[in-house]
Design goal:
Layout: H1 2-12, E1 16-20, E2 23-27, H2 41-50
Antiparallel strand pairs: 1-2
């Protein structure tokens, strides 16, 4: 459960608000699939998020 919370917090720090045709949208940067094709899609996503660098907040 704590791993999922940490992943969620990492993902919350990535998006930016951009305006496309005057409409505010949230856009995420491209995240490399570093986990490979083995296993389930969920595991691949988890590994990719885990490989993202931590944001230095302070």
């Amino acid at each position: 459960m704590l791993n999922n919370a940490a992943r969620y917090r990492k993902l919350q720090q990535l998006p930016k608000r951009v305006y496309i045709d005057g409409i505010a949208t949230i856009q995420f940067p491209r995240i490399a699939a570093t986990g490979g094709d083995e296993g389930s899609f969920e595991n691949s996503v988890n590994l990719a998020v885990d490989d993202l660098p931590d944001r230095n907040r302070w």
